[in-house]
Design goal:
- The protein is of the alpha+beta class.
- The chain has one domain.
- It is built from two helices and three strands, in the order ββαβα.
- The chain has helices at residues 31-43, 82-92; strands at residues 5-14, 19-26, 58-67.
- The chain has a three-stranded antiparallel sheet, with helices on one face.
- The protein is elongated and about 40 Å long.
Length: 96
């Protein structure tokens, strides 16, 4: 899109790694980027199970993202590969 913007999303997962809810905590002010922020979380399901030592049954994660608006130099870039996006988002949840 060529747009620069910051977004933020909070999501909750249960002990099995199931997505319970997600919501924007910071809007980009651009509906397509806001939708993509939520869609990235939804495409990352299922999440890894939280560690057994986690005290709560539900784990809340907040991620802030920056869309830098830079067009990719060599094709669509790593964000176009859903497996890479899912792996990156899932890596954030390790050790919740």
């Amino acid at each position: 899109m060529g747009q620069k913007a910051d977004t933020g999303v909070t999501f909750v997962i249960d002990r099995s790694g199931k997505l319970i809810s997600n919501a924007l905590v910071e809007s980009a002010g651009l509906p397509p980027l806001d939708r993509e922020t939520l869609a990235m979380v939804e495409r990352s399901v299922p999440f890894p199970k939280p560690p057994v030592e986690a005290k709560d049954d539900l784990q809340r994660v907040t991620i802030l993202m920056t869309f830098d608006g830079t067009p990719p130099k060599d094709g669509p870039g790593p964000w176009a590969d859903e497996a890479k996006v899912k792996a990156k988002v899932n890596s954030v949840c390790r050790g919740c």
